Amino acid sequence: MASVNTLCKSVPNVKNTVIKNCNLYSDKNGVKHIRIQARPNKWHENDCPFCHKSCPVYDKHSSRPTIWRGLDWGGILVEVEYQTHRLICPEHGVYVAEVPWAYPCSRFTKDFDLTAAWFASYLPRSTTSYFMRVDWETVGRCVNRALHDLEPERSRRLDGLVNIGIDETSYKKGHKYITVIVNHDTNTVVWASEGHGKSVLEKFYKQLTPEQLSSIKVVTGDGAKWITECVNEYTPGCARCVDPFHVVEWAMTALDEVRKDIWHDAYSEYKQVKKDNPRGKGRPKKDAPGLAIVKAAKAKADEIKGSAYALGKAPEHLSEKQQLRVNLIASQNPRLYRAYLLKEQLRLLLKLTNVDEAEDELKRWLWKASHSRIPAFKELYQKIRRHKTHILNTIRYGMSNARIEATNNRLSSLSVKLMASETYKICLIWCTLYALIYAFHFLTES
Fold this sequence. Notes:
This protein is of the alpha/beta class. Helices cover 48% and strands 18% of the residues. The strands form 3 sheets. It has a 5-stranded mixed beta sheet with strand order 10-9-8-11-12, sandwiched between helices. The protein has a 4-stranded mixed beta sheet with strand order 1-2-5-4. Strands 3-6-7 form a 3-stranded antiparallel beta sheet, with no helix packed on it. A hairpin with a 5-residue loop joins strand 1 and strand 2 (32-40). The longest helix is centred in the middle third of the chain and has 33 residues, at 244-276. The two termini are 24 Å apart.
């Protein structure tokens, strides 16, 4: 049977540690704690936390012992206690001596930091902080400390890139952006940097070797000009793909412009009708002259104003009420309905898998859009024509930016409170979050 000392020694999960004692107690809130008094063995009690060399003692860091939080034991809070001291390193200066169970400047054990980092890559910030019983900003610091152990050579992410996705996401109000690059084959973030634009993306391409540049075959992204310019300049032999999501988004924007213009016209007509048929004092009678005309004009404007959601959905997903609204628009607003059909035709042709068939459909769509007599779709026609080759490449290679869009959503929600730190460190932290899935074996084996 294992002794208490042996069980307690397994808590830090590291070597070169001596267990002196342990106590079980409950705090004022009734939460149980187990406090383990530990120390490094004599051969490592004066090691520098950075170069790990034995150094002369400088002084005692504090009169009170330091406490580190460990992973919970079935709901029991685990704490490691040790009286720290400072040493003077010829290379790094005065620092608190290293303890084998924790990273430098941390008040958590290594296992705690690694576990928090692993959870942060899969769970929402509120769930991670609630489960680990820490604040979310503390989770970010745990990820920062665990970074080197999880991925000691981060430059390896850039080896063997074949299919990559490029996109920018906002992480804070005031047009604060991060440019993110994802490896489609492994679904991991390989590079990130604050800002967006050609100057930012050039930093990524300039740090690649000629061999790494030549291995890139497909680049996906939105229709940003700066992405296309960098692709043509640094990897002219690869295929540039425009994500179908963004193409449909362009069509939705054009459709919404048409809807707003028609609503403005209908609302102006309603105001004019209301002005031409003034309301008298008191409640108007049902058969009052002009009342039906005013109500009909208002209903027409309201019908267009409330149609945005129905027009944006695919026909197969419309509810009965939404389908009735679309049918009403088809009978009363031919221009808006033609815009809706153009949007749907573009959405459906992007689902085709045969490139030749998709090219024929795209040619027909471009002709319809150019002859639609709808200014918003004439502008969209010009945009689609410029990106025609990139759109067909997307269908040819079957690529999508869905993964990087999902990654951007996580980055936006995770990085709000952590952007006050140094940009380079933050980029590495969030890149590591999505590389943690490949570090799972490392955690289990250690």
